[in-house]
Amino acid sequence: MFKPLPAFIGLRYAGAQRRSDDSAGLVSFISGLSMIGLILGVALMIVVMSVMNGFDRELRERILGIMPHATIYNASSEVDWAAMRKKLAADAQVLSAAEVWQVNALARRGAEVTPLLVQGVNPDTIVEVSNISEFLSPEAFPAMLDAVEPGVVLGRGIAAKLGVEQGDYLSLIVPNNDAASGGRRAARVAGFRVVEVFHSGTALDQTLALVSWNQAKALAGNKGGAGIQLRVTEMLEANWIMRRLLQELPREGFYGTDWSRTHGNLYQAIQMSRNLVGLLVLLIIAIAAFNVVSTLVMVVIDKHTDIAIMRTMGASTRQILLTFVSQGALVGLVGAVVGGVLGVLGSLSVTDLVAGLESVFGIQFLKSDVYPVDYLPSELSWGDVALVVGAGFLLSLLATLYPALQASRVQPAAALRNE
């Protein structure tokens, strides 16, 4: 079988050193360390990028699946919100719309008090804008509309702070912020029964509560907080779409906000963390790849005599160069491919692995009151895998150039004179 001479010799040099002398053993040891470092660097970078992709996915699909892309408000009590919802939903760039009455309140149960965001919703339309129903039982919304015992749906974080469970009672308090009354009017207070506690696994579990539209209207004193939640065709264009819709509305007093104001900092933090962590791990890969330089320099020193003999037998400078490039390329290829395989396996199992460790040790590494989600998400991207594996191999290949050039410059007469 035809075997190109440089590749054949280079692959032989890259194999395990079978001689028992100290020089060969040291070369073999350093070569193994270079390959292990490259494997770990590539695997780690694939896992890290998958975790960052997972956080990005959870923001888009879970957090912004519950919260709207944009909301348009008006403080006037004269707005026909049902008609306004139909008007906005008819826009070509709006997928769905739902009326909401939003109130900042305090929840109290005994001596425990915690702030929360109360949203008064219409069960018939909220499911078109939000996927909150995925975390609720079918009985939650009907129980919330009970006229005798008004119900409230709480996030699990709020319920834990107040020490309440489904079926318990609590009070929602809205402080008086009416400047016209000089602050003399008492705060509005209403009692609610906890009809369900939802767990979305996101930071919303710590802040969000749902009541009926009429109950939220009463808590707000029929003043401010009413609006239309929108889900648009392009999430990243939500601000521009919201501004265009505001300009097209016929009356004054409308204003709006979009997800970039409420969760934009989180999105930017995820992207910045992804870039910074990716850069740091890339440096680890580069360090591991350039360890190949140490390996090949020692091989060149160890093989001075072999190189001189090959040159006297007619091997060209190019063939000597390719011999050592082939050796470094094999180390880089094996390290990048094995690291890629381990990285893919790690990305697919890291969520379950962390959950298992949490279960075994009885601790929670991520909490939704600190992090955007309370578990470690992961989303494998084959494009990222190809990029990392390719970068690892390319860096290893570049690292071979200097030692290979040094080998090609060995003078046969000078090398053999010292033997």
UniProtKB/TrEMBL annotation:
Membrane disposition: Multi-pass membrane protein
ABC3 transporter permease C-terminal domain boundaries: 279-412
Transmembrane segments: 26-52, 276-301, 321-342, 386-405
All copies of domain MacB-like periplasmic core, residue ranges: 31-220
Domain of life, source organism: Bacteria
Keywords from the UniProt entry: Cell membrane, Lipoprotein, Membrane, Transmembrane, Transmembrane helix, Transport
InterPro entries to which the protein is assigned, alphabetical: ABC3_permease_C, Lipoprotein-release_system, LolCE_TM, MacB_PCD
Subcellular location as annotated: Cell membrane
One Pfam family from the record: FtsX
Family statement: Belongs to the ABC-4 integral membrane protein family. LolC/E subfamily.
Name used for this protein in its record: Lipoprotein-releasing ABC transporter permease subunit
Organism: Microbulbifer epialgicus
